[in-house]
Every structure is written in C-alpha cells, then in structure tokens.
Amino acid sequence: MNRFLRLSPHCSLKRLEKPYIYDIKNDELYEIDDKAEDFIKRCDGVTPLNPPFTKGGRGGLSDEEFVNFCLKENLLEIVENPLSSLVPRPSPLAPRPSPTPSLRYLELQLTARCNLSCRHCYLGKPKNIELNFDSVRKILKEFEDIQGLRLIISGGEPMLYSSFWEFNNILPDYKFRKVLLTSGWFLGTEEALKLNVNEVQVSLDGLEDGHDTLRGKGSFKRAITAMKYVKEAGTDLSAATMVHQYNLNDFQKMAELLKSYNVREWGIDVPLQTGNLKSAKDFIVSPEKGGEYLKFAYGGSYHGGSEGYVCGRHICTIMPSGKVCKCGFYEDRPLGNIEEGLRNCWERNYHMPLKDLQCHDCIYIEECQGGCRFRAETPTSPDPVMCALYKKAKT
Ligand code: SF4
Ligand code: SF4
Fold it and tell me: Ligand 1 mean position to 304 CA, how many Å?
C-alpha cells in the first residue's frame, strides 16, 4: 500500500550552514544530510513514498529507520487521505541557502515606548519611536527568507506597539519560532489566549520587594499574574532576571517559584552600566559578585558565539529607529538601516575569531567564548562577569 508523508505543520526545513529540520514548537534543530533534505522536500502529502527512497542511508540510518525516527519525533506525519493535502497548509519550503554565518535569531524592537522606567534599563528613558508596520511586515518576510529560526519580539514594552495586535495576527504566516519579551504588565487572560507566539519571556528581577524596587510598585504582581495566564494558555514560559543589589538574597526562592510555573528557560545576566543604571549606582553589583548568580540560569542562550567566534555569531537586533545592529548595545555603530534589506545589513557584520581575544588561551574559552563583547573593557579583553562565573581571575 502506498504511503503519503508530510512535514509536520510545526516543522520547517532550514538550509543554514547545513540542512536541518527545525521543530518550531519544541525549539529543536535536527541536522540532516543532503539526501534526507531531498527526501523531505518530496514529503508533500500527495506523492507516494515507499522505501527505498534513495541509495544509501542517512546519517547511518536506513531509509525506513530515518522515516520511523521522524515519525517518532513528530517531524513527519502520515497523510491518510492524500487529497486533503490539496487544501493549502504548511508544506516543506524549498529553502534558499542562508548567508554564512547564518542569521538564526533576530531581536525585533518594535517600539521604544514603555510604561515603566526600570532603574537598570540600558535604553534609557522611554521614547515615542517605533517601526512602521509595513517595515515590520517586510522584516518578517526577509527573516523567513534568510532561514531565521527565532524571532525575539521586544521593545521598550512590545505590547505598547501601536500595531501590536495587527502584528500578532500575521505571525502565524511565518515559519519560525516567535518569543515575546515583556514585563507582563499588559498581559491579561484574554491577551494570553490571543497571542500567536510560541513562548513568552517575562522579566522577573527578584521577589516582590527586589523586583518592585527596580521596576516600580505593583510590577511584581503584574508579572506573576501574567506568568499564570501564559501557563494557563498553554504557551511556553521563560523568565529573564538581572542581578542587582536588591535581589541578591532572592535567587533560591525565585528558582522554586519559577519551577512551580514550569518555566523552561531562565536567563540571568548582570546589567551593563549604561542607560538608566548610570544614575542608579546603588543598584550596581560588581561583575565579580554578579557573575556568581549566573549559575542559577538554565536553558539555552542565543547570544553566544559558535565555531570559534565571539558572541553574536547568529543574532542581530533591529532597533525602533530601523537601525540594524550587532545587538541593542551597538546602536551607535549600526550595520545599516532596515530599508537597505536585512541580508545586506547582516552581511556587513564583523565576526571576531576567538583567537583574536586576549584570553584566547583560557581553559574555558570554548564554553565561554569570551562572554559579552560590550561588557568587556576593550573589544578584545575578557568579560569580567564570565571570568567570575568560571572562577577565573581577570587577566
Ligand atoms: S555584546 Fe553582549 S549583549 Fe551584545 S550580542 Fe554580545 S553577549 Fe549579547
Ligand atoms: S572566563 Fe574570562 S578569560 Fe576565560 S574565556 Fe571567559 S572571558 Fe575569557
């Protein structure tokens, strides 16, 4: 009997440095070889596919084993009635190769508006600047064409973007993961149910006193309520925390709290001494002290370098002004403006090899990759926070 297969709707073929199947829902990237990629492209739900499909195995697996693996991982699905595939639905893309290095993660700062004035905010005072919606639509298309994996929707407070719900409505059209970074202030139960994102990351900067001292009265309760609604809506939840003087005793209890909300990733960082933090010196912890708290973090981080390069190998940021930058800290040194095209801007990015760092012979270099280049005192010096994390004295 003929068998009809189709790439699962939550998966997409990506042609990065190598071919991959990306499971958008679970944020898993599966490396495949060229033969497997050709095979997946034929999984359109209407072409009968019976092994053997090609000569030779895929990554050591026979054809049948490969298909069984994909079915088990829910990457492929069996189509019972091939005619139903004629109804338009997600199908394997015929991907154009991405640039090298690939741009996998894009932080999209929709707006510089914010209702809060967090004492550590690196962006400084909120501003009434935002991307126009036509540009945003173009950016989403370009990011999909470039084989992007994860769109990080941020601001300011992204939910204050004037076209936020219009933007939310078009998100399902794109085959990448969408992650909303928010304070949670505007996230009620209705909003949580309406969101078309795979993950919401709520900022949680301490228990109630510590969080509210940094972010403003009432903000802790709003963040916790938002987390509850996100969880009830069945959307993945993650959290981000900045280490500051008023939350140093909170980490153990926060870890328990986040566990009770089934938080999948906890990003922890030491704020850079820029923006509002320059006039809120009492919040500052030394890099050496702050670095010790990074051990509470878990889950992936997309800022890191790879293949022998420093941070930012696969990520860039689009600011509300339309500037495309290495990351939000580099607005004064943009790669270009989004009007010039995302690919053009990305291809101008300089990726420093690890061997050019002063600490290239550190025993932690492969894991640490020199940490955050903005936080390091000079472009090539060590990142003191990471040195503290790895228990290494600054060289
Ligand atoms: S400079 Fe720091 S914030 Fe920017 S990409 Fe590198 S690690 Fe991330
Ligand atoms: S721990 Fe410090 S010295 Fe070692 S690689 Fe990281 S930044 Fe460089």
Answer: 8
Q: What contacts 324, CB < 8 A, 6 or more positions away? A: 316, 317, 318, 334, 335, 336, 337, 338, 340, 342, 345, 346
Of 77, 74, 94, 98, the closest CA to residue 25 belongs to 74
Picking from 248, 303, 247, 241, the residue whose alpha carbon sits closest to that of residue 267 is 241
Q: How far apart are CA 17 and CA 97, in angstroms?
A: 8
H/E stretch holding 31: strand 28-31
Rounded distance, CA 284 to CA 300, Å? 26
Q: Which CATH superfamily is domain 105-351 in?
A: Aldolase class I (3.20.20.70)
Sequence-ordered list of residues with C-beta below 8 angstroms from that of 280, at least 6 positions apart, any chain: 119, 120
311 within 8 A of 354, measured Cβ to Cβ: no
Burial 159-184 (b: 16+ CB within 10 A, else e): bbbebbeebbeebeebbbbbbbbbbb
Residue 384 Cβ contacting ligand 2 at under 6 Å: no
Token pair belonging to 146: 């470039």
Reported as a single tens digit per residue, the pLDDT across 267-299 is 999 988 788 888 888 888 998 899 899 999 998
Mutate to test the pocket of ligand 2, among 303, 387, 389, 391 (most ligand atoms within 8 A of CB): 387
Share of the chain above pLDDT 90, in %: 72
Tokens of 98: 């991405």
User: For the CA atoms of 308, 314, 320, 321, what is the dihedral angle to 10 degrees?
Assistant: 60
Rg of the chain on CA atoms, in Å: 22
